[in-house]
Amino acid sequence: MEVNHLSEGIRVAILGATGAVGTELIQLLEERAFPVSQLKLLASPRSAGKTISFRGEALTIEAVSAEAFQDVDLVLASAGGSTSKAWAQTIVDAGAVLVDNSSAFRMDETVPLIVPEINPQAAAQHQGIIANPNCTTILMGLAIFPLHQIQPIQRLIVATYQSASGAGAQAMAEVKAQARAILNEETPPTDAFPYPLAFNVFPHNSPLTEQGYCQEEMKMVKETRKIFDAPELRISATCIRVPVLRAHSEAINLEFAEPFPVGKAKEVLSQAPGVEVREDWENNYFPMPNEATGKDEVFVGRIRQDISHPCGLELWLSGDQIRKGAALNAVQIAELLVKDQLLPTTEKAVSV
Amino acid sequence: MEVNHLSEGIRVAILGATGAVGTELIQLLEERAFPVSQLKLLASPRSAGKTISFRGEALTIEAVSAEAFQDVDLVLASAGGSTSKAWAQTIVDAGAVLVDNSSAFRMDETVPLIVPEINPQAAAQHQGIIANPNCTTILMGLAIFPLHQIQPIQRLIVATYQSASGAGAQAMAEVKAQARAILNEETPPTDAFPYPLAFNVFPHNSPLTEQGYCQEEMKMVKETRKIFDAPELRISATCIRVPVLRAHSEAINLEFAEPFPVGKAKEVLSQAPGVEVREDWENNYFPMPNEATGKDEVFVGRIRQDISHPCGLELWLSGDQIRKGAALNAVQIAELLVKDQLLPTTEKAVSV
């Protein structure tokens, strides 16, 4: 990436540096050679003093404070909604842009909600905060937006197969500890999860809304509408946790106004950014979460005509929850901010 | 159960006595006090000579042969489609009724396909063979037929979360061995399954049809239509295997011609035979496969108005794949044959 407008690079802070997404953010900044001139790792006081390696250098984690956001251009936050709400104004007042991975600001009308492959143009409207969408929403969006552009989706029914990582690093460790316990005929621990997830599945345990959908499901509904700028899009979601470590899968039924030829859908998706069509019909080989783990792409397959509706399509996807579902999308937003000169310092640089 | 028409009881043979379903069949005959006067356990020559306990007695497994079906009234078969096909005529010629758990005869027009809570009346048409439906089909049927009777279902979209037991006892052992290997950072064995299922999910690996649906999905489509006597019912299914041992779960979207009030649906399902509504909205507690394991009922929950369609309903279920999904349904068919005097010997007894 060229950063010709700001030769000295971007001063970045990561809020929630020790979490599953925070750790991945640090790796991605390094892997993708994001033009970092200074990296601050912020976390709760509990983690302060520990070190994390970045570009071969051991960086010491600082406890989050108002002062920590001084002289920072960009904050990538993944420390939960209440932490983001607590610090957002401080960050904006300090002149930095907050790319927030929590759900705190996603539905705020003044906050762009961005998947760079879908609605990069929305970034220009930011007022200091940009929201990173929900993981299941990002993965689904990548796979269906290219089709939606050809023919607007009329209705969408999705059932998810969500990994433990959606509930954080502790939950990932817990599902392994649960599996070990069950294999040894012991009682599985349930600290991060309300029920055993190993050798089990259960509806996503986010709070239920009055309509009988859980918050995770309503995120898929509302966030997809906002990202697609399709406020009337009809969506129904069933979100289920499965004992997988870090990649989500989704079974998606799409309904269009006119038939959508399967060949056309495959052609469109095979050229779509961030998507890889993975179908070997002869060998019954399709996307699987264990293979999507650690990958940037959303893998899409089993693309087929819905036999229950002449204008329906069915598809199946797997994508890394921590990577494209969270950290990678946030870093791509950061790259977009640099490229389009949407960071305050770059604006300043431009106005000089 | 009364068996006043045949005081000496029924002479039963189990074909495939050593499999996951065969083992459950033997337990259920004992648990439910099925009027067995004689029990023959048949399996491949490999298993001959081994013993299995029934009513406190050690029964010796015999290798299957034509002679073995002489003097038998009822054969409960669960040894795969090719074995059922190979022996069906011999069984019928010997004067016994075959209740077959394989897919071999399910779509044969002369063979009733029965879920006793749904279409017991079809049993009277049998010509020596009755087919036990596919496991996912039975579980779904129990949960949706009571609603279909109130208002015919127009369209149905289902995504499944299928346990290892659907692929047999070896597959159940393999998913545990895979989990153990993965936890120890070793390569998981893949003998029963084409891919690791532990800490993973993948589309059901039954052969794919030209339309892009796998055979398991087409079973849900075709068998449900036959059992419901609704040849035009529009169904689309996505069948996915998940690392669960022996209970399947399903996310089901139903579309009716008119709105179906959620309260009415809950009332109907709470009184439906073989169904238990399990919903604790305050505690986010719904059906889970680990709790459905070993239970007779299909557990249904998260019954809610589909927000994407005014005439839609969403629901979620879990049910034991080996029990109601296979062995229990077969034993219930056997009980129905006794009650309605539909076994050849009982016909003889009646004609005397």
Protein topology:
The structure is a homodimer of 352-residue chains.
Chain A: E1 10-15, H1 20-31, E2 36-43, E3 51-54, E4 57-63, E5 74-77, H2 81-93, E6 97-100, E7 129-131, H3 135-150, E8 153-161, H4 169-183, E9 202-203, H5 215-228, E10 234-238, E11 240-241, E12 247-256, H6 262-270, E13 275-277, H7 289-292, E14 298-305, E15 312-320, H8 323-339, H9 344-351
Parallel strand pairs in A: 1-2, 1-5, 2-4, 5-6, 6-7, 8-10, 13-14
Antiparallel strand pairs in A: 3-4, 8-12, 9-11, 12-15, 14-15
GO molecular function (chains A, B): aspartate-semialdehyde dehydrogenase activity; NAD binding; NADP binding; protein dimerization activity
InterPro entries (chains A, B): Asp_semialdehyde_DH, Asp_semialdehyde_DH_beta, NAD(P)-bd_dom_sf, Semialdehyde_DH_NAD-bd, Semialdhyde_DH_dimer_dom
GO biological process, one term (chains A, B): 'de novo' L-methionine biosynthetic process
Mean pLDDT of chain A: 95
CATH class of the largest domain in chain A: Alpha Beta
Individual helix count of chain A = 9
Q: List the chains of the largest interface with their residue counts.
A: A-B, 57 and 58 residues
What quaternary form is this? homodimer
Task: Please name the CATH architecture of the largest domain in chain A.
Answer: 2-Layer Sandwich
Can you tell me the CATH topology of the largest domain in chain A?
Answer: Dihydrodipicolinate Reductase, domain 2
What spatial form of chain A do the alpha-carbon principal axes imply? globular
What is the count of distinct domains of chain A? 2
Kindly provide the radius of gyration of chain A, computed on alpha-carbon positions and rounded to a whole number of angstroms: 20 Å
Side-by-side strand order of the widest sheet of chain A:
3-4-2-1-5-6-7
Distance between the amino and carboxyl termini of chain A? 22 Å
- Helix and strand sequence of chain A: EHEEEEHEEHEHEHEEEHEHEEHH
Q: Please describe the biggest sheet of chain A, giving its number of strands, its sense, and whether it closes into a barrel.
A: 7 strands, mixed
Low-confidence stretches of chain A: 1-6, 347-352
Helix content of chain A: 25-40%
CATH superfamily of the largest domain in chain A: Dihydrodipicolinate Reductase, domain 2
